[in-house]
Design a protein that fits this description.
The chain is elongated, with a radius of gyration of 21 Å. The protein is of the alpha/beta class. The protein has a seven-stranded parallel β-sheet with strand order 3-2-1-4-5-6-7, with helices on both faces. The chain folds into two domains: 177 residues, Rossmann fold (3-Layer(aba) Sandwich), CATH 3.40.50; 175 residues, Glycogen Phosphorylase B (Rossmann fold, 3-Layer(aba) Sandwich), CATH 3.40.50.
């Protein structure tokens, strides 16, 4: 089977991490010939895949919809590759990839909604027309599926829910170890978030909530670790300075491997304003962290019935602060119990499970 994956960029981020976690294993396990087309620029993940022997075609085009030059280049490349399956991820990739693949008559054309779309009426109609040419649309959570069906972009029968995989190898960490000292004041209590520093991640409200938490608790040193980079970094650092919490916030930048940092933390926070699903949350759960999670979108589905996290209203700083205070004051043994439940639940998101589900979708449909 020849499979082509199409993405807008391949540097860092949730979509990119899914490809990095799954494509080499997909090729190794089933002997599929897998290649990747990048509409825009490559980067860290493209280099990693190339080093693993994956064929990556970087077009260096502007993926903004519509790009007719890009459509022509895609058509020629897909025709040359002659795949059995085209799998596009994200709005720009879905638009250009599904159209180009339909012109080539690829047998199985798959689009994937990687978040909850915020399309105006015109674009809802455009994507509705584009999705008629797809065999299947993957939604990364039930919340995403419900949204794209409700706004009329795709028929429910065409949608398959498939959660993103996590490729971490779990090792023992400080918060998973039993401790006789429930309230060890010698070490800082670390809240951590891993994300791009962009508006949708709602980090300004997190910083405000954290500053209010510091006013409430003076018995133990508390730190907030922010792993990630993005256009809001300077603005957020200026806010931290204004709030006088600079000494308590650790800006760790982009990290190729997040597990060492998750292993040092006590609680993971995901305060996004909108979240289709979350690889970052699944990674934190895999590492045994209890979580504070936005109630908006599909992130709560990752928690499942594990009772390993607290849902918050991302628009309400009091809601965020209260959840942080609750887990801060919880005995360490109870947080560890929550973490163990999180680890058990996170097994749902193994790469093996993801590939098994993906292969069912990749079967040629007549």
């Amino acid at each position: 089977m020849k499979i082509v994956r199409i993405v807008s960029e391949l540097d860092f981020g949730g979509v990119e991490q899914v490809l990095a976690n799954s494509i080499p294993q997909l090729a190794d396990q089933v002997g599929a010939e897998v290649s990747v087309i990048v509409l825009g620029k490559g980067g860290r993940v493209s280099q990693k895949l190339i080093s693993r022997g994956v064929s990556v075609h970087i077009l260096n085009q502007n993926p903004r919809i519509p790009n007719f030059v890009l459509l022509h280049k895609l058509y020629k490349l897909i025709k040359n590759l002659n795949p059995d399956v085209i799998h596009c991820q994200g709005s720009e990739a879905n638009f250009h990839g599904i159209l180009a693949a339909s012109w080539v008559n690829v047998p199985n054309i798959i689009g994937e909604e990687i978040g909850i779309p915020n399309h105006h009426s015109y674009w809802k109609l455009i994507f509705k027309l584009v999705y008629t040419k797809a065999t299947t649309i993957i939604a990364i959570s039930e919340a995403v599926k419900a949204n794209i069906v409700a706004i009329g972009e795709v028929e429910e029968r065409k949608v398959e829910v498939l959660y993103n995989p996590v490729g971490l190898n779990v090792t023992p960490s400080n918060h998973q170890e039993e401790s006789d000292n429930e309230n060890d004041q010698s070490k800082p209590f670390i809240f951590i978030t891993t994300c791009r520093l962009v508006p949708i991640k709602n980090l300004d409200k997190l910083l405000i909530a954290f500053s209010e938490l510091l006013e409430k608790s003076t018995q133990q040193k508390i730190e907030l670790w922010i792993v990630g980079d993005g256009p809001l970094k300077e603005e957020l650092q200026a806010l931290a300075k204004e709030l006088k919490i600079v000494e308590n916030v650790n800006w760790l930048g982009f990290q190729e491997e997040v597990q060492p940092f998750l292993n040092q933390a006590e609680v993971f926070i995901l305060p996004s304003l909108r979240e289709g699903s979350s690889v970052s949350l699944a990674e934190a759960m895999t590492c045994g962290l209890p979580s504070i999670v936005t109630q908006v979108g599909g992130a709560g589905e990752i928690l499942g019935n594990s009772n390993s996290g607290i849902l918050i209203d991302p628009l309400d700083t009091h809601s965020i602060k209260s959840a942080m205070l609750q887990l801060l004051n919880l005995p360490k043994s109870e947080r560890q119990t929550m973490g163990k439940r999180a680890m058990k639940e996170a097994k749902r998101f193994s790469v093996d499970n993801y590939i098994k589900s993906l292969l069912k979708i990749y079967e040629i449909k007549v």
